[in-house]
Every structure is written in C-alpha cells, then in structure tokens.
Amino acid sequence: MPDRPDDTVIEPGLMARGLGFSRGGRPVFSGIDFALGPGELLQVTGANGSGKTSLLRVLSGLLPPAEGELRWRDRPVRAGESGYLQSVAYVGHTDGIDPDLSAIENLQFAMRVAGGTPTTPQVESALASFGMVPAMHVPVRTLSQGQRRRVALARLALLPRTLWLLDEPLTSLDERAGECFDAHLDAHLRAGGIAIIATHQPLAAEGRTLRLDG
User: Fold this and answer.
1) Which CATH number fits domain 1-87+163-214: 3.40.50.300, 3.40.50.10810, 3.20.10.10, 3.40.50.360?
2) Domain locations in the chain?
3) What is the pLDDT of residues 140-182, one digit of tens each?
4) Which of 5, 63, 94, 142 is deepest in the core (most CB within 10 A)?
5) Each residue of 85-96: pLDDT tens digit?
C-alpha cells in the first residue's frame, strides 16, 4: 500500500502492524500493516481463499491474531475489549439475521442486543433507507437474497458505529440497492467514520486498497 507523505498528520484511528493469522498451523496472511484515520476507506481485495474474511474477523475480534498488533485510537486492542467492540459494526459474508423473524423484528432484536431501546420509527427509517418498506413485516425467509442483504445492511443506519467492517456488502444487491449502500458509505466517511470493506466489486467511494495474495 502506498506510503503517506512524511508531513501527513494522522489522527488516531485503527492501526495494524505486522498482523498475521494462521489456521491449523498454516499461515493465512501475515505482515499486514495499515493506519486509517477518520473519513478513510480501505478496500481489501484478493482471490477467494486469500484471507479477506479472516482478516475482517480478526479485526472484529471474532478471531485472535497469530502475530502483530492492532491499535484503536492509539491504544492496544485486547480480546473482548468493550470500548473497541462498541465502536465496530461488523456485517459478515452471511447476513446474520433470523429467517423466522420479520425485517423489523430482526432490527429490533439487533438494537436490544446492542443495549438500545428500539422504537418503531427508528427501525422503519433504517429499513426505508434501503428500500425495504414494502417487505418489512414479512418473515425474512420469504425474501430474496438481495432483500436479506438489505436488511443486514440496514443495521448500519440503525446502530451508528465509527468503524465499519464489511464483507462483500454488494453481494446480491441490485443497482438501486447498491446506490443506497454507496450513499450510506459516503455519509459515514464524511461524518468521520472509518470503513474496511472486503469486496470483489469496485466501490464508488475513494479509498486505498490492500490486496491479499493468500
């Protein structure tokens, strides 16, 4: 990844230094270095199996790194550290929603788990921002894969977090839904948020790229 000019002042954000992960004694990735400040985007690319999902899971605290250091706002990130986890919004390759609940019920549950008190207008507004008003009351299992993805992404609008860690967010989205996502990402970055996104598809927002070779 390109170096920054020597006179660039980086506000504290997320920094990885020599980050590595192994599975079954086999290295998946190693030597990952980056520093991201407010308003910055890092797009993670690479072939299937190169470690994109594993990297996001390490960054989200779901997997322990085998080596290296991760720092958030100039402090080391420890396993299960609540201050860091409360700043993170993680949307994995799978949608992580209950197929037997409606879209509204899924978001209400997500907000309660995060310690919030969901209100119907808040949840409806988040779903509306992804064009899900017509289908917000039906069980998720009756929705298309693209609609399920929209429900998962609507959590980003409902539960604002400083750091977005997203795994293939554009998968199964049609052009209109993709534009909705682009608008949310742009607003997030403009507000000083940080995003790390693993994707095969080019993003509309400007950012830097980290390619994993596996």
Assistant:
1) 3.40.50.300
2) 1-87+163-214, 95-160
3) 999 999 999 999 999 998 888 999 999 999 999 999 999 999 9
4) 63
5) 889 999 988 888
